[in-house]
Amino acid sequence: MKDKNKPEAPLGPEENADSKVDELLEQAEETGQNNGSPEVSEVDALKSQLEELQAKFLYLQAEYQNFRKRSARDISDTRSRTVADTVMPFLGIADFLTMAQSAAEKSDNLEAIKQGLLMIIAQFDKTLEELDIKKFSGVGAQFDPAIHDAVGKESSDSVPEGSVIREWNCGYRIGEKLLRPARVMVSSGPAAAEEESKEE
Predict the structure, then answer these.
(1) Which of 39, 104, 160, 195 shows the greatest Cβ crowding within 10 Å of its Cβ?
(2) What residue ranges in the chain does DSSP mark as E strands?
(3) Is the dihedral of CA 117, 119, 120, 124 positive or negative?
(4) Cβ distance 193 to 173 under 8 Å?
(5) How many CA atoms lie within 13 A of 184 on its CB side?
(6) DSSP 195
(7) What's the half-sphere exposure (Cβ side, CA atoms, 13 Å) at 167?
(8) How far apart (Å, rounded) are the C-alpha atoms in residues 163 and 142?
(9) Which DSSP helix (H) or strand (E) runs through 56?
(10) Phi first, then psi: what are they for 173, rounded to 5°?
(11) pLDDT tens, position by position, for the chain (200 residues)?
(12) Is the overall model pTM greater than 0.90, yes or no?
């Protein structure tokens, strides 16, 4: 048994150095346990931040995929509603045309059939106006390539050169935007003047 009262023999140089190292290691372990090693603590913090950022990235990725699916569904729904709202008024006109065809097959009264067709055309024009679509005629107007599509030229003694003599199809606008140009025949002026220009 070691006597506590007996003075310890002084340590040699090697034993003294080993003791000092052990003491420093003990202090380092105690400091690491109490305060946490600065290097280890920083690595743990970075790992924690990385895990947090990865979780946020996965969440944002899932949200973006959901957003794309919702957008595609909304666009599809909007298109279907727009088509339905546009077509619905014309279904009644289609019914009138079917009735007119049935009446024409059973009746020889051309005047009644004509009146029926005029009523259908009037209903068609009214439906277009409700959709802000207006038709226009080019007859008598100066040819304008912005709204007219020239089918050809024709000489005329009564219609000035460059004016529209007649049209094959009327034009349509939706608001201020041209939907379809009017297909027209344009006057080339009097026939005599046209022949003189050819001879020259």
Answers:
(1) 104
(2) 133-136, 148-154, 164-169, 171-174, 177-180, 182-187
(3) positive
(4) no
(5) 27
(6) H
(7) 20
(8) 4
(9) helix 38-106
(10) -120, 145
(11) 445 454 554 444 445 555 655 665 566 555 555 454 556 688 888 888 899 999 999 999 999 999 999 999 999 999 999 999 889 989 999 999 998 888 888 888 888 888 989 999 999 999 999 889 999 988 989 999 999 999 999 998 888 999 999 999 999 999 889 999 999 999 998 876 555 555 55
(12) no
Residues 6+ apart with CB under 8 A from 133: 172, 173, 174, 179
- Which residue has tokens 């959901």? 66
* Residue found by looking up tokens 């509603």 in the block: 81
Report the DSSP pairing between strands 171-174 and 133-136.
Answer: antiparallel
DSSP letter for 158, please. S
